[in-house]
Design a protein that fits this description.
The structure holds 2 protein chains of 2 kinds. Chain A is α+β, with helices and mostly antiparallel strands. In chain A, 33% of the residues lie in helices and 11% in strands. Chain A is built from 10 helices and 8 strands. Chain B is globular and about 60 Å long. The chains are: A alpha+beta, B alpha/beta. The complex binds iron/sulfur cluster (5 copies). The site of one iron/sulfur cluster has 14 residues of chain A, from helix 7.
């Protein structure tokens, strides 16, 4: 009876000592600051910073002196805290926000047929180019909303269109690449007016496809030629030099220019 | 003797062939307009060589092949090229001087619209080659390309590419696909009865291009009259006709090769790896016409069918005929308010359409209308792990697992589960008691995986 007990205890002791020695001789030295910085980060693991996650970003901050404000989720105070912890200085870029460049819902751009399949924009596009009359507009099947780690994109279920809530959007940019119709752009949060259409079609065809689509009348670009350029039959805002002229909202005959992102 | 089963899996959908399989092929009258898509084949769209305002002759080349995997396109009748993009309901525009309008896949495709002059004047650019037996295989292959021939069973893969196996590949068998396993379609069936001689001559031409001896024609056992007709004709030429069990998807290349030769196409490889080249019966006939009659591919046999159609029938239609025109040939529909779906192709793999402006293409084997009762609107539920889909998958895949993986957007996992081997036959969606849209999920998964792999390469 006693022999097996002793034997097991012996093995336990031996392995314990091995582990203790291994811990001394083979331990990997990590900079303790990495863990500290990681604790100060939001922990969203969204990848918006361009690194594999919060841990990778913390490493980059500590080892490669990457600026903490590169994390789009960090509030100003949080970034300042991390910077002061690391003895760095911070300079803030303009905050960006996602913009879905489409305002035509299913009453403006009616559905051509009944769709009874997977609720996903990429999947719907594979079925004869999706049912929306406009070949460029938002399908409202939430591919972007599912990709957003911050629940900032709302899908209006009745109107079949995606709406970004700027107060929730941290500008990580994850939604941009998933939209199969390339409707999402990152734009400065401070921009006061937006042209919400991405269809380059001519007026004749545009009118058939969507009542709110830009018809290329140039009324807006005449008011602000510096910021609004025409790309074929589509007015495009240059967000490096955006328009602050809110008069353009009222000149647009099809009403596709909006002051805020939520009211479309 | 017919075996009970020729490959694992498969389903028996309601076949609806009785609507048309006793009806002779009729020749469609000349239409007013033909909208000829320049992207009727897999590969690069053809490049237009005529422009709006030009007059063309029947059979004249109007677009040339744009690369190796591409074929030229020919005018279906004589007339003038007109622009149509202002008239389409769905949208269209001019791109580089060529009309682009919405095609069957929903994407904008370049199209040349011919307003027929009613004369139907032929153009004799391609000389008939009567003694093709004395021709070099290279010349015959060139003719196949010049006539714009593509796989007419559905895939529309350029035929001259399929007839050019790499020299390292030892090809010993030509398999002729005459199974026509898609429900409702009977175009191949009728053609075998009515164009038997031409088909066999086409097969002999393919045989001499490939320089091989062994030819097998696979026909599903539900067409006994076609089997008999083909057998009588092929006996003289030492061609074997095999009766295959009736089972969907018997006409899929991989399943057909296995049923006839017992060879399995290795995963991720082309059917060519097994030493077999598969050609469709319609393609064989097109090759015969191209070589012996000097006629480029601008018409095909199409079944116009479905319960809403007044007179379901088989037609020799010119490429570019709009669906609306085609439906009037079949005397229209019984009740226009009771149409649930318009499908180009068969019910299992065909593509539903929005608009009747869409034209017939080289691979349009059928136009199928379903009424509202026949189209079920389903609410799909979660997978109940019943395993039915696994039982029927002819590729021995696990549709249930792959479906969940794609739903969760775990594309790399789905790739490991061999989603790329799915042939999109639809057997799994057909049997799923939970009505899961499996094939649509797989198509999404496959396109995401292909896009990712392309990105990785760059
Ligand atoms: S913005 Fe793009 S991804 Fe988002 S719902 Fe609209 S179409 Fe889909
Ligand atoms: S809306 Fe787009 S950019 Fe904004 S938080 Fe969501 S994913 Fe990031
Ligand atoms: S005013 Fe409106 S319709 Fe006219 S160009 Fe500007 S955005 Fe387009
Ligand atoms: S669609 Fe794909 S997964 Fe489904 S049964 Fe066919 S081959 Fe198998
Ligand atoms: S048939 Fe449908 S429910 Fe059954 S295992 Fe397959 S996916 Fe799941």
């Amino acid at each position: 009876m006693i022999a097996p007990l002793l034997f097991m205890a012996g093995i336990g002791l031996l392995l314990g000592i091995t582990i203790a020695l291994a811990n001394i001789f083979f331990s990997v030295k990590t900079d303790p600051r990495i863990e500290e910085v990681e604790d100060m980060l939001p922990g969203a693991n969204c990848g918006g910073c361009g690194f594999a996650g919060c841990n990778a970003f913390a490493k980059a901050v500590v080892l490669d002196a990457v600026e903490p404000q590169k994390c789009p989720v960090c509030s100003k105070e949080e970034a300042e805290n991390i910077a002061s912890h690391m003895g760095m200085s911070v300079e803030f870029d303009t905050p960006y926000v996602a913009l879905v460049k489409c305002c035509g819902d299913n009453s403006d751009s009616p559905e051509r047929a009944l769709y009874n399949g997977v609720t996903d924009c990429s999947a719907a596009l594979l079925v004869a180019g999706a049912t929306k009359s406009c070949q460029h507009g938002c399908l409202g099947m939430a591919t972007c909303a599912r990709a957003c780690p911050f629940n900032a994109i709302e899908i209006d279920e009745k109107r079949h269109i995606a709406i970004v809530h700027p107060e929730l959007c941290v500008g990580c940019g994850k939604c941009v690449s998933v939209c199969p119709r390339n409707l999402i752009d990152m734009v400065p949060k401070s921009a006061p007016v937006h042209i919400l259409c991405s269809s380059p079609e001519k007026a004749v065809l545009q009118k058939k496809a969507c009542s709110k689509g830009c018809i290329g009348c140039r009324k807006c670009s005449k008011l602000d030629p510096e910021s609004i350029k025409m790309d074929g039959f589509l007015a495009v805002m240059d967000y490096d030099n955006y328009s602050t002229n809110t008069e353009i909202i009222d000149v647009c005959p099809v009403h596709c220019i909006y002051p805020s992102l939520e009211e479309k | 003797m017919i075996k009970k089963k020729a490959f694992s899996g498969g389903v028996h959908p309601h076949d609806g062939k009785e609507l048309t399989n006793t009806k002779n092929i009729k020749i469609a009258p000349l239409m007013k307009e033909y909208a000829v898509s320049l992207s009727q084949h897999i590969g690069a769209p053809a490049k237009a060589i005529v422009k709006v305002g030009d007059t063309v002759l029947k059979g004249q080349k109007i677009a040339e092949a744009n690369g190796f995997v591409s074929v030229p396109i020919h005018a279906p009748t004589s007339g003038t090229i007109i622009s149509k993009n202002k008239k389409t309901s769905a949208g269209g525009r001019m791109e580089g001087g060529v009309d682009s309008v919405i095609g069957p896949t929903g994407a904008l495709v370049p199209m040349l619209t011919i307003s027929a002059d009613g004369e139907d004047t032929p153009c004799n650019d391609l000389e008939p080659i009567l003694s093709w037996q004395d021709c070099k295989p290279e010349d015959l292959k060139q003719r196949v390309l010049d006539a714009g021939i593509v796989g007419m069973g559905g895939a529309a893969f350029p035929t001259h590419v399929k007839l050019s196996p790499p020299p390292s590949q030892n090809i010993d068998t030509l398999v002729i696909n005459a199974s026509e396993c898609e429900p409702y379609l009977s175009a191949d069936h009728r053609q075998m009865l009515e164009d038997t001689k031409g088909i066999i001559e086409g097969i002999l031409i393919i045989k001499s291009i490939l320089g091989i001896q062994k030819v097998c024609i696979g026909i599903e056992s539900n067409k006994p009259d076609a089997i008999k007709a083909m057998q009588e004709e092929s006996r003289k030429h030492n061609i074997v006709v095999t009766a295959l069990p009736t089972m969907y998807p018997q006409g899929s290349e991989k399943q057909l090769i296995y049923a006839i030769t017992g060879r399995k196409v290795p995963m991720g490889k082309l059917p060519m790896e097994t030493g077999c080249v598969v050609q469709n019966i319609g393609t064989a006939f097109a090759i015969y016409e191209a070589v012996v009659k000097g006629k480029p591919l601008y018409e095909r046999i199409t079944t116009i069918t479905g319960s809403p159609i007044v007179n379901p029938s088989n037609w020799r239609l010119r490429v570019g005929t709009s669906l609306a025109d085609a439906l009037t040939l079949a005397e229209g529909v019984k009740n226009p308010d009771d149409i649930g779906k318009v499908i180009l192709g068969g019910p299992m793999m065909g593509m539903a359409q929005f608009s009747l402006d869409v034209p017939i293409m080289k691979n349009t084997s059928g136009i199928l209308l379903l009424n509202k009762q026949e189209v079920t609107l389903y609410t799909s539920g979660p997978c109940i792990r019943c395993g039915s889909c696994i039982n029927v998958c002819p590729q021995s895949l696990m549709p249930s697992t792959m479906g969940v993986q794609i739903e969760k957007e775990r594309f790399e996992l789905a790739e490991e589960t061999n989603i790329m081997n799915c042939i999109e036959c639809g057997c799994c969606s057909y049997v799923c008691p939970s009505h899961r849209p499996l094939v649509q999920l797989f198509r999404r998964g496959k396109s995401e995986i292909q896009a990712n792999n392309r990105k990785k390469k760059v």
